[in-house]
């Protein structure tokens, strides 16, 4: 049985509604099931106990989704659209409670959490509209006695695995196109942040999704659940956001069945400031790209390259801004940076700082833990950085901004591309010739030009190289949940 504690309820306007989380674990996770705990990373408070489900429960849940697939796919696009629209309305109506749950279990500032809930609802709205735009085509036949057509049909049951850093928007971004296409879904949210997904599913039930269309798996360990999703032949597609290492494992597990996959994996995003950039705008963009969600984003600026002639000016202004970023509990209205997700994340950022300083880097601000409890770390700027340091080679996933000085504009693009990752890149420049040249030369799936934020439900999100396969969002995101079927009609 799932239980939520007073430490969570005190933040909610409607705790009775979200007490319905207990109904979402399914018949295979009853009173005798093993359970796991969810804690607030800012305070350590216990928020909930959840059923700890494994391979057997996952298989049973897949069976429910498989049984519901024909009914859901058989509804008209308009009928599916109307249910998605209602879910969108309910998400916005209960946005403050969803944001409070998100802040409690993940730690991000409440203002950012509210923005994420709005962003999640935007995906539901977009795909409620796109559900009505699944088009086929006719093809000119080589003879008059034939007709040639292409139709698109839902791929079937989808297994979705979402990360902890955006536990609401990633749920919506993955499953709303699947639902619009006519697929049923089995979702396994991250074990650190499963509660906001559960709350969203409560609202999905109220929106009118038929039984078995949306299914939730709570689990403290992902190995058994992921393996069952990847190897069960009733699951036709896997959508995963997480590390490249885990993505490789899931791909291997899917390979025997040639199962369709969509992966949004690790990143090592460069942020380049050229000498013709608007420096004030570049500082604003770097603050957004580096410190949103405390640097715990897959598209976070991980390497900040600044051309030598503007390096000192940029570094001074940027460091001054970073010094004034307040760190603390996400429910504090003055907080800009919440906690890191766990002690392992804290240890990683400390290791990156120690490695850089040991190799000659200089800490301009920050560089240490905050307080004796929680997982807080000061927003940190480091200069005199070289490419051999760990923080330039590995994704830090925290509030650490390394600044690398460069002279040659062509060489910095080569350095920016010198990574196995290719998710997101940013650069600031005003010369139009340079803008086009650099934008086309950067080997990344997404490039922000004179902006530090580029996510939108209307645009394709995803990477190249070892940062992923497929795209989420936009009309292209819908195609990943559809099979193309060619019909050749003879004898006419």
From TrEMBL:
Q: What is its EC number?
A: 1.2.1.-
Q: Which residues form the Aldehyde dehydrogenase domain?
A: 33-486
* InterPro entries, per database record: Ald_DH/histidinol_DH, Ald_DH_C, Ald_DH_CS_GLU, Ald_DH_N, Aldehyde_DH_dom, Aldehyde_DH_Superfamily, Succ_semiAld_DH
MF GO annotations: oxidoreductase activity
Domain of life, source organism: Bacteria
Q: Which residues form the active site?
A: 264
PROSITE patterns documented for this protein: ALDEHYDE_DEHYDR_GLU
Q: Which Gene3D superfamilies match?
A: Aldehyde Dehydrogenase, Chain A, domain 1 (3.40.605.10), Aldehyde Dehydrogenase, Chain A, domain 2 (3.40.309.10)
Give the SUPFAM superfamilies listed for this entry. Answer: ALDH-like
Cross-referenced Pfam families, in alphabetical order?
A: Aldedh (PF00171)
Q: Recite the UniProt keywords alphabetically.
A: Oxidoreductase
Q: Which family does it belong to?
A: Belongs to the aldehyde dehydrogenase family.
**Name of the protein:** NAD-dependent succinate-semialdehyde dehydrogenase
